[in-house]
Design brief:
Blueprint: E1 15-18, E2 21-24, E3 28-29, E4 33-40, E5 44-47, E6 53-55
Antiparallel strand pairs: 1-2, 3-4, 4-5, 5-6
Length: 60
C-alpha cells in the first residue's frame, strides 16, 4: 500500500494574502477577542482558549 500524503499544518493556513494585507480565514472568539481563533469542525466552531462553542444549524 502506498502511504497517503499528510496535510501540512501551520499558522500560515489561517491567513490569506490579498495585496499587501493578510486576512484571517477563521472566525475569532467573541469572548476572548482578536487574539484567539475558533476551530472549524463538522458541525460547530470551537475556541481553543476558553472552549466557547457555536453549533451550526442545518436548514432543510
Amino acid at each position: 500500500m502506498a502511504k497517503e500524503a499528510k496535510k501540512k499544518k501551520g499558522r500560515w493556513n489561517l491567513y490569506s494574502i490579498s495585496g499587501d494585507k493578510a486576512e484571517r480565514k477563521n472566525k475569532t472568539c467573541p469572548k476572548c477577542g482578536q487574539g484567539a481563533f475558533m476551530a472549524k469542525h463538522a458541525n460547530r466552531w470551537t475556541c481553543g482558549t476558553c472552549r466557547y462553542t457555536v453549533f451550526e444549524t442545518q436548514s432543510k
